[in-house]
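Progress report, Aim 2. The chain analyzed during this reporting quarter is listed below.
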Amino acid sequence: MRPAALEVLRTGPLALVEDGGRPGLAAVGVGRSGAADRAAYRLGCRPLGHGDSPAAVECLLGGLAVRARGRVVVTLTGAPASAVLDGRPVPHAAVLELSDGAELALGTPTSGLRTYLCVRGGLDVPPVLGSRSTDTLSGTGPAPLAVGDVLAVGPAPASFPHVDHAAVSSPPHGEVVLDALPGPRSRWVGGLDAVTRAAWVVGPDSDRVGVRLRPTGAPVERVAAHRDVELPSEGMVRGAVQLPPGGEAVVFLADHPVTGGYPVVAVLTDASADRAAQLRPGQPVRLRAAPAVR
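Predicted structure tokens for the chain:
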């Protein structure tokens, strides 16, 4: 039996290798990166027996197609793209066995943005600074996938949970509500209420660095005492909601910079940061105070 691998036949708009990221390096200017929707990524890993963070494929808006070399076991989670295995429809969030030569192809997701192809054993690409994740901001990690790439599969874990399907809801089509905590500069706009009263829509220039939110009504403005105040750069985290002077907001995602100079008026909860990673351009968004601070 030849070593297990996946050959890339099509990539769709963008396909990246991602894992749990490279935490703990922000002090030297290296962001964590990793899967943008961490919950969807972890959900795909668990039925395959992984308690660690193996490398997987993060696929933007479907279109990915791969061919198995040897026997490969996979799951699909995140944005629910239609999938066919050798021309036969297969379910989302289920364990799928690809025999040698089998082809798995994804269509366009019905909702959400990013689909995860997780592999039992993980993708055995060379790690950079302890992670196999692609950081699109810095260029650290593997290059985006290209047609003809062959991705080796690593050793399978010893365990294999007896679960073949995970019941999970799909990302919503309409307005998405994101829970937020007050940011360190929330007083610059009069408090978190000013952010939660605003209505937003996702801009077309959103990416793995951040979701750009455009106001659909009156923009959030700084209070008079801070209107012309500038900040030195300070540390940033995933889920930080920055307010540049133009009236838009930026929600930082997996590949965010480690520092920034615009005021952070709110910070999303971990679960809401995952939901933000599935937002599509044009989708309406509302922020609300997280239950603990409402």
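Residues 176-293 form a domain with the Cyclophilin fold (CATH 2.40.100.10). The mean pLDDT is 94. These observations will guide the mutagenesis work planned for the next reporting period.
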